[in-house]
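Good morning,

Attaching, inline, the backbone tokens for the sequence recovery test we're adding to the shared suite. The designed sequence is right after.
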């Protein structure tokens, strides 16, 4: 288990109350105050147009922690026993604007590695709303549908090692909790791994909103350099080419959604969940219907250096 370091001044660090696989990291106000000046140096347009400015933000954050934070986050994310943290701002006030949260998420991402290009937005990050009415072609914005457990990057030809999901705003929301599951905690994982279908190449596509004009092939289960299983799966995008593949996908979907080891947690505004995309799956519970519902999220996903 990752050692919980209490020596990073300005941060409260603890285990999540539902799982010691997840580390809670709360940023105290004195760190926020120290970040305001270097974060104000660049506006969002500069971050979008000049990639090197994103690393400048990351260095500003790491310098404030005497270069301890980046190493600590890498240690959490790459450790198989953990691989996930929730980072939050201790006191959300008027200084914690959407722009500030985008910059903070950018800095965290660049302490982990290099973000992928997000074709949906055409940027290194994507912002999107979940509202009462929606005409999109994926579950991402369907407020009243359960978003089943999945990993990101299944339909692109870029490697996706990690994922950041940050909550920028939320109004009139009840329900919509985040659900996550560590692959090693899936009850019938051994049975699924023994089925050769899970290691066959599956065809993966995506809806038009993703702005990807190609399809990829890859198996659901692979092994990492230590021989441990990795998963790349989302329920909406595989295109099974046989009865065996279709039945395997159904069995996997049922196993994930029926798992008693899923962790259901609420994420407050100003917080982000960051997870290793190879062995953590994530989803979202449905919201209760409300015509005034509005949630805005930020997504960054990328690869290790």
């Amino acid at each position: 288990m990752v050692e919980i370091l209490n020596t990073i001044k300005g941060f409260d660090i603890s285990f999540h109350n539902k799982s010691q696989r997840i580390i809670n990291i709360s940023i105290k106000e004195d760190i926020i105050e120290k970040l305001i000046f270097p974060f104000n140096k660049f506006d969002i347009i500069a971050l979008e147009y000049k990639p090197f400015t994103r690393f400048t933000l990351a260095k500003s954050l790491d310098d404030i922690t005497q270069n301890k934070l980046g190493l600590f986050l890498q240690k959490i994310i790459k450790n198989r026993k953990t691989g996930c943290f929730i980072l939050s701002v201790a006191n959300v006030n008027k200084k914690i604007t959407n722009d500030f949260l985008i910059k903070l998420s950018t800095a965290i991402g660049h302490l982990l590695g290099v973000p992928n290009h997000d074709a949906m937005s055409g940027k290194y990050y994507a912002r999107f709303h979940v509202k009462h009415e929606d005409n999109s072609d994926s579950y991402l914005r369907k407020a009243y549908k359960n978003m089943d457990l999945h990993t990101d990057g299944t339909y692109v030809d870029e490697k996706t090692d990690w994922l950041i999901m940050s909550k920028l705003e939320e109004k009139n929301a009840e329900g919509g909790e985040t659900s996550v599951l560590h692959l090693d905690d899936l009850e019938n994982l051994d049975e699924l791994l023994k089925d050769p279908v899970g290691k066959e190449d599956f065809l993966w596509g995506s809806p038009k909103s993703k702005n990807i004009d190609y399809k990829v092939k890859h198996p659901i289960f692979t092994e990492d350099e230590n021989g441990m299983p990795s998963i790349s799966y989302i329920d909406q995008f595989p295109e099974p080419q046989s009865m065996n593949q279709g039945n395997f996908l159904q069995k996997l979907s049922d196993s994930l959604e029926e798992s008693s080891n899923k962790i259901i947690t609420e994420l407050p505004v100003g917080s982000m969940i960051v997870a290793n995309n190879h062995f953590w799956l994530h989803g979202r519970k449905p919201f209760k219907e409300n015509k005034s519902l509005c949630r805005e999220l930020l997504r960054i996903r990328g690869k290790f250096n």
